[in-house]
Specification:
alpha+beta; MutS, DNA mismatch repair protein, Chain A, domain 3; Rossmann fold; 6 domains; five-stranded antiparallel sheet
């Protein structure tokens, strides 16, 4: 893997990621990749404290499995892990990470052990014996300093003292004296100075030192008992310790990625399963201020051709690097929402020149050896930089074409080449995509941009000029270049220019279409809002109108005709307001020339209110309300919808005596309609008895009328069988 990482220029990037690990570990996370990524994305929402460095505990776990006794500093490493999990328990996580933490339960006796530690260190202040011994040690150290000062201040020593400092030699307090000091001071010579003096430990100081050693030994014995006690508890919970140690590496990998992503403003991409690689605004981490790349790699082979030093090799590395980083859940500079990256089982790079004098291998032989090693592999992403390197291009074209067409059955391949013959062969093959690195002829430099669907030109002459080769030599080279090859290059140049112009025009049209669509949506929203406002106001006015009518009806039984007329007038005035807006539309037909904003075109199809307009460059579907005639403008037709309800002549009684059946039914129908409009809920119809023919016709009509709730014969004093009371 290290060879691959180096070939993709990811060394420094991954080293920076690994520097966030609390302890060294592989970058791969075992298990469900999508589940891991969900947890990582959830952790990104929190500001978590960094994990303290943790030692590898493999040997400690093995020692515990044999009932060995750990040192307190080894136990402290386990405490660091458990303490961090306890810290995570205090945070109100949600979703998948909460579910994960809920499954981790720390045993009670392990919890008891953690109480003996403060800030992940053994707390000596919890033991009275240790406190007492520490006080004695402090007292002895003070006595040593006082004793040394007393000796240095002794007038007899002053003549032998080279200085008045207390020196620490081999962790021992000494004074620096000249020779002959043994006459007045008993002590041990610890060392000689460069000036010929002696570093001397007074005998009284040595006695104090022995006391300190005895006290430290007592401390070690007490700590050993604690270590023994804790080790027994840890041994009982060995399975839990192995589990928590493994899960700690998982958490450490999560948090390292979160810290790395936040620090460098990076994004995570969810791995896909369809072997497609779609990058949007991806930046390779090795580049400084690069142009972000966007590429769709959906087929089996991606063939990258074009200008020298135009970014072909870096594009190859970028595609492979993005897939590699995605597989290992490593964040990157990319638009994650628009990118679609598939990881692969294996990554193979044939990038560096394998020629090596030590192993006596040529460039071409090294390439062939690399190809041979791919045999039998599946689900791989293969990157080959300058595939034709190291051999005759005529023979290589057939050889590499055969190799690539066979290998693409089992994996995806990215190739960079200047080999036109091979490019032409592969371009005709199914499952091969083309990308060309572009050259800016005007500014005489690569654009570091790529155009899909064509074979690019190397621009060798232009590149040579840019790097200092004389124009005279370039001219001679062009003369020796075959006419056929020149024609091919000219054709490629024209294709590149035409495709670049087409791409620009497509981009302009897409922007125009987006603008039109946004405007259309805005107008539709406004239209819907106006219609809703109209309906609301209409309902309000109709409610007020019917309230006024009902108030008028209540006055019908009173003799005060002025009050009656006033109520009806109020209703009529309200009714005048219940009119929809007048909608004036221009009429259009297929073939009309119209314009929308600054775009002019011809209507080629009409579907209700939607017109299909063809302009010189684009076809649009627009609501006819957005169009205006441009040329053959017909006179606009006005349509007005209004409600005209005349209730001045409305009555609650109708007399049909003396009318023929057809006349009577027509008059009855209009009477019922007027009554409904007027808001009456009960009316009376007089038809008489006579021959019974008219009475029967009226009865049949009322039975069939959908707005008649019920009807019955009138009371005897109001017409009896010769009249009907109708409930509307």
């Amino acid at each position: 893997m290290q060879k691959l990482i180096k070939s993709l220029d990811l060394n420094d990037y991954l080293d920076e990621l690994c520097s966030n690990f609390a302890r060294e570990k592989p970058i791969f996370i075992q298990g469900d990749t999508n589940l891991h990524l969900k947890r990582i994305e959830e952790l990104c929402e929190y500001n978590l404290k960094e994990i303290k460095p943790i030692k590898d505990l493999t040997n400690s776990l093995n020692h515990l499995s044999k009932k060995g006794i750990l040192h307190l500093d080894e136990i402290e490493e386990f405490i660091k892990i458990i303490s961090y999990f306890k810290y995570l328990f205090t945070i109100q996580f949600k979703n998948s990470f909460k579910n994960y933490l809920d499954k981790i339960i720390i045993p009670k006796d392990i919890e008891e052990v953690t109480k003996y530690f403060k800030d992940d260190k053994f707390d000596e202040n919890l033991d009275e014996k240790l406190i007492t011994i520490k006080e004695k040690l402090k007292e002895l150290n003070n006595r040593i300093n006082q004793e040394l000062r007393t000796i240095l201040n002794n007038s007899k020593i002053a003549s032998y003292a080279i200085d008045t400092q207390i020196h620490y030699i081999n962790d021992t307090e000494c004074i620096l004296l000249r020779g002959g000091f043994l006459k007045i001071l008993d002590g041990n010579i610890i060392a000689r100075s460069n000036g010929g003096g002696f570093y001397v430990e007074p005998l009284s100081i040595a006695n104090y030192k022995n006391g300190i050693k005895r006290l430290n030994k007592e401390i070690d014995e007490i700590k050993y008992e604690y270590a023994k006690k804790f080790s027994e508890i840890l041994h009982k919970n060995l399975l839990f310790l192995k589990f928590i140690n493994k899960e700690f590496d998982l958490i450490d990998g999560y948090i390292a990625r979160v810290i790395f992503a936040k620090k460098n403003d990076l994004n995570f991409v969810i791995p896909s399963n369809d072997e497609k690689i779609i990058l949007h605004e991806f930046t390779h981490p090795v580049l400084t201020n690069p142009k972000p790349i966007s590429v769709n790699f959906n087929e089996n082979v991606l063939l990258i051709t074009g200008v020298n030093a135009g970014g072909k090799s870096m594009l190859l590395k970028s595609i492979m690097a993005a897939s590699f980083l995605c597989k290992y859940l490593i964040p990157m500079k990319v638009n994650a929402n628009k990118s679609h990256i598939s990881p692969f089982k294996e990554y193979i790079s044939i990038i560096q020149d394998p020629q090596n004098s030590k192993n006596d291998i040529s460039t071409f032989a090294g390439r062939m050896l690399a190809f041979a090693q791919i045999n039998g592999k599946r689900n791989f992403l293969l990157g080959i930089d300058e595939i034709e390197l190291g051999t005759d291009f005529e023979e290589a074209s057939s050889l590499f074409f055969t190799l690539i067409t066979e290998l693409k059955k089992y994996g995806k391949i990215i190739i960079t080449t200047h080999h036109k013959r091979l490019a032409m062969l592969l371009a005709k093959e199914q499952g091969v995509e083309l990308l060309a690195a572009l050259y800016d002829l005007k500014n005489e430099k690569p654009k570091y941009e790529f155009l899909a669907g064509i074979i690019g030109k190397s621009y060798a002459y232009e590149t040579a000029l840019r790097y200092g080769i004389s124009p005279g030599l370039i001219a001679k080279a062009k003369e020796s270049f075959s006419q056929e090859e020149q024609n091919i290059n000219e054709m490629i140049n024209k294709n590149l220019e035409l495709d670049a112009k087409l791409k620009l025009q497509i981009s302009i049209n897409e922007k125009k279409e987006d603008k039109l669509n946004k405007l259309l949506e805005n107008l539709k929203d406004k239209e819907a809002k106006l219609i809703e406002e109209y309906k609301t106001r209409k309902n309000e006015l109709e409610n007020e109108y019917f309230k006024a009518i009902n108030a008028a009806k209540k006055t019908l039984d009173f003799t005060d005709l002025k009050d009656k007329q006033r109520q009806i007038n109020v209703a009529n005035n309200l009714k005048k307001e219940i009119k929809p807006d007048i909608i004036v539309r221009e009429e259009f037909k297929v073939g009309d020339f119209v314009k929308y904003d600054k775009i002019k075109g011809k209507i080629i199809a009409l579907n209700k209110n939607i017109a299909t307009v063809q302009s010189d460059m684009i076809k649009l579907k627009l609501d006819i309300s957005m169009l205006k005639h441009s040329g053959n403008i017909p006179k606009p037709a006005k349509s007005q919808i209004s409600y005209e309800k005349n209730i001045k002549n409305a009555s609650v009684k109708l007399d049909l005596h003396g009318l023929r059946v057809d006349e009577a039914i027509e008059k009855l129908d209009k009477f019922i309609s007027d009554a409904l409009i007027a808001g009456f809920d009960e009316v009376m119809v007089y038809h008489g008895i006579g021959t019974g023919k008219l009475a029967m016709a009226v009865k049949e009509f009322l039975n069939a009328h959908k707005n008649i709730k019920s009807f019955s014969d009138a009371p005897a004093n109001q017409g009896g069988f010769g009249a009907k009371i109708l409930k509307l």
